[in-house]
């Protein structure tokens, strides 16, 4: 799956407080991995497997594993229904 970096960051900003922790717990991964997935630049912790190509809107992010993205979108949808 491909998204622009700006689109990925927009998804992150729409997440309610505590979502990074929830995603990490549900997927049994480190919180830093979730943060890195959405563009944090902490090296050596939580490799996400995402690949960034230079381009407009922050570049193109190629996402190999969409589990974090899928859960984030579900959380956003849940919070919108409340």
Quick synopsis:
It contains 4 helices and 3 strands. It has 82 residues and is mainly alpha-helical.
Q: Specify the oligomeric state.
A: single chain
| Biggest sheet character | 3 strands, antiparallel
Tell me the number of strands: 3
Q: Tell me, rounded to a whole number, the average pLDDT.
A: 88
Shape: globular
State the share of residues found in helices, binned by percent.
Answer: 40-55%
| Strand content range | 5-15%
Instruction: Indicate how many domains the architecture comprises.
Output: 1
Q: Strand order of the main beta sheet, please?
A: 1-3-2
Uncertain runs are: none
Order of H and E elements = EHHHEEH
**What integer value in Å does the Rg equal?**
12 Å
Total helical segments: 4
How far apart lie the N and C ends?
29 Å
What would you call the structural class? mainly alpha
List keywords for this structure.
82 residues; mainly alpha; 50% helix; globular
What does this protein structure show overall?
This protein has one domain. 50% of the residues lie in helices and 11% in strands. It is built from four helices and three strands. It has a three-stranded antiparallel beta sheet. Helix 2 packs across helix 3.
Question: Layout of helices and strands, plus pairs?
Answer:
Blueprint: E1 2-4, H1 5-14, H2 19-27, H3 31-37, E2 51-53, E3 60-62, H4 67-81
Antiparallel strand pairs: 1-3, 2-3
Helix pairs in contact: 2-3
């Amino acid at each position: 799956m491909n998204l622009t970096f700006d689109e990925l960051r927009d998804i992150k900003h729409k997440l309610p407080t505590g979502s990074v922790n929830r995603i990490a717990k549900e997927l049994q991964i480190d919180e830093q991995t979730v943060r890195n997935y959405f563009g944090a630049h902490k090296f050596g912790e939580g490799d996400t497997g995402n690949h960034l190509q230079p381009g407009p809107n922050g570049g193109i992010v190629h996402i190999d594993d969409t589990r974090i993205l899928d859960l984030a979108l579900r959380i956003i949808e849940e919070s919108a229904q409340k």
